[in-house]
Amino acid sequence: MVMATLEIAGGARLKGEIEVSGAKNSILPIMAASLLSPEPCCLQEIPQLTDVRMMQEVLQFVGAKVSLSGRNLWLDGAEVVPQEVPPSLMRRLRASNLVMGSLLGRFRQVRVAYPGGCAIGSRPMDLHLKGFLALGAEIREDHGFIEARAARLRGADIHLDFPSVGATENIMMAAVLAEGVTTIRNAAKEPEIVDLQNFLNRLGARVKGAGSDVIRVHGVPRLRGGEYQVIPDRIEAGTHLVAAAITRGRVVVKNVIPEHLEALIAKLREAGVRVETLGGRSALLVEAEGRVRGVDCKTLPYPGFPTDMQPQMMALLATAEGTSVITESIFESRFKHVDELRRMGAQIKVEGRVAVVNGVPRLSGALVEATDLRAAAALVLAGLVAENTTVLEGVEHLDRGYECLDLKYEALGAQIRREAARKAAGSMRGT
Ligand code: UD1
Prior knowledge:
four-stranded mixed β-sheet; binds uridine-diphosphate-N-acetylglucosamine; UDP-n-acetylglucosamine1-carboxyvinyl-transferase, Chain; 31% helix; single chain
């Protein structure tokens, strides 16, 4: 298939202001959660992302009415039925698994094909399913489908072996309409979990504790509709901070919640980047003059350094002075961007979950291919600073989670051209 490419002419220092969109990783679970209510919900300021469109198709398949009016996404779950969701829809995005919790919660039954997602390692569902089981569901897995059914869902004490974001969200959703109290221990603490809690409570749920590692859900008989605006996307914001740093630019990133970015900001400062909160605490000024210094980082569940910023940070550290050690502790094979960065002259060695990055003074433009969302972002960042032109294939991954990143960076002075259709590959790579 002929896909879009980006041609990035490196060398421009990014300067100006950039506005962050709503958080993809809040919007997707919240869209799924809207299925819990038979009344209409409206999500405000929704960015145009492929993942949002794909989630929309999953919701429509089970009978939800979904429409976009300007930047408001209307979701009406009045006619939803818990019908089997086929692989053709489920495999298009990992977050499709989040309809399990809401359909099970509302209808006491759900059957979906195994979800797909980014090529960043195996992403099992065992923790989600253990949670459903504890709430009283029976689980069956056959022919590539997962089915959960319960005559009654009853609140339970659930201890997660690992603070999985998706499992925490799915269990919260399944518990909202259950009888009694559900306690989720060792829950994920990501800001998007707090956002989901706030949305559910807006609809009349009784959820407390999100943001800490113990979440309590008091079951209620039904939910109503409501309006909601999601938090800004902390990973998009983080990507812009790194974009300013890697190009030695000066950028004001607007619509941010700085507390959500503490681990990244601390690392950037350690690397010699100036990051300051501006008045009102909803904007960050980021500025870098020379090459950054190498720093070590290890990805961890929130509030640790986010795995979703690891590829972008690696692009930055590939241009740093000195050596950096990056440890990926969340996903087992999230280093697919390494080979592509190497094509651009980066010196990176990988041993298991550890990457040793020896910074080089300059990267050089090349034909590279993104195989997942954040790898795509990292390669755009590398392209911004590389000599000559970088051609990025796999742009569809970028569009899953960034709204018009190319246009946003063009407005800051970058030279990026989107080619709608080019059969690129082969020839250039061989040379
Ligand atoms: C979410 C984010 C994703 C981010 C990730 C980690 C969304 C839509 N996606 O993904 O961008 O990279 O959090 O911050 O919010 N695991 C199990 N068993 C399970 C569930 C997970 O072993 O049942 C493991 C996974 O294989 C992985 C780790 O737990 O190694 C983290 O996964 P999880 O936190 O569940 O990530 P997602 O919710 O899929």
